[in-house]
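Shipment paperwork, digital attachment
Item: protein structure file
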Amino acid sequence: MTYSEPMEAFVSARGRSTALSVLVILQLVLLALATVVWGVGVGELGGDLTGAVAAFGIAALLETVNFLLFFAATVVFLTWVYRAIANLPALGSMSCIFTPAGAVWSYFIPFVNLVRGHQVMATIWRESQPPAVNENGFYRPRSAAVVNWWWGLYLVSCVIGIVTSSTQPFGLEGLRSLGSTQVALHLLRIATALEQG
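Attachment content:
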């Protein structure tokens, strides 16, 4: 990649990554609590409906707080992406195809973000590692398998989230189905966050 002005020296992104880790851990705790509460609500549907309604209300509150944490984590994540891409030339990368600002903006373009977001993360993953050399002294291509799995889980959880948010439950069976789906969705989101870490 060619830059019109000299690149900055390496600037640590440790503060951003620490803040992001804390926010993701808080989200994981809230998702785990919400998963348990959704499960309790589903269990109460067979008997005490007031207990089920209370559990669903608590789960909704936990998810609201989780959404606020998700928003904060997204802001920190985007600043981390900017810094990580900006640091690649200082780490010796000569094949980065993104500018720092372009990498961040690619997350805001509908449909492009479905592909470009993965490309940005795979680039950061591959280009920030030291080159792999085989026993004959030749460079081996770096793998981004963990990024592929993480991105796949992320997309699946987004699709399930969109589908479940667009359906309205009717009756006890609808609430039971919604609660069970929320439990499965939260477990998938927890797996996605753990894969990222």
